[in-house]
Amino acid sequence: MSDDVSHETSAADAGADEQSTVNTRRRYFLIGATSAVAGVGIVGAAIPFLSYWSPSAKARALGAPVKIDFSKLAPGEMLSPIQAWRGKPIFLVYRDPETVASLEEQPHDLAHPDSENPEMQPNFAKNPTRSSRPEIGIYVGICTHLGCSPKFVEVDNFEDTGQGGFFCPCHGSKFDLAGRVGRGYPAPDNLPVPPYRFESDTVVVIGEEEGAA
Length: 213
Ligand code: FES
Hints:
By secondary structure, the chain is an alpha+beta fold. The protein has 3 helices and 9 strands; from the N terminus they run ααβββαββββββ. It has helices spanning 3-52, 55-62, 97-105, and strands at residues 66-69, 83-85, 88-94, 136-140, 151-158, 163-167, 174-175, 196-198, 203-206.
């Protein structure tokens, strides 16, 4: 082998070594970057897992009070996604002044307009709007016939007045926006009102009664 060839080979080896070092550094960098990303992913995945299994989640399932923030809700809307308390859907509707006035006038033929069954609402909700605050209606969203979950109907639940309400698709029961069932439908009673109290203008605690210690 000539000196020239030997010199060229050494230069090539040096180049290969340098390239190898660069590749190794690059590999370490990629491994480090991947680990960092994986770390973020694990933390991200761990948070919902931990929160799902946190004591408060278990307590809620057993019936602990549930706090609901409805600050984003506008008049005429029902809170979505629907929150649960004791495993039951909670309907929270924000009624506009016209709806409140209409509920007080009772324009529909209702089976229990005066909410005479004390098991269906706390005392504070034994009124035309079946609520503590006239504009905010809070009901357990389970039909009193066979337990389906009624749907929120913004308008025309009652064709004669155009008023919205709740419609149970299972056997056709209709409720007004105070959860009162219309006369002649299969549901035997109004939608239940859960115990609740307002913690602020836009936060309500379901499961703790208004005025209770
Ligand atoms: S379950 Fe609602 S009408 Fe039958």
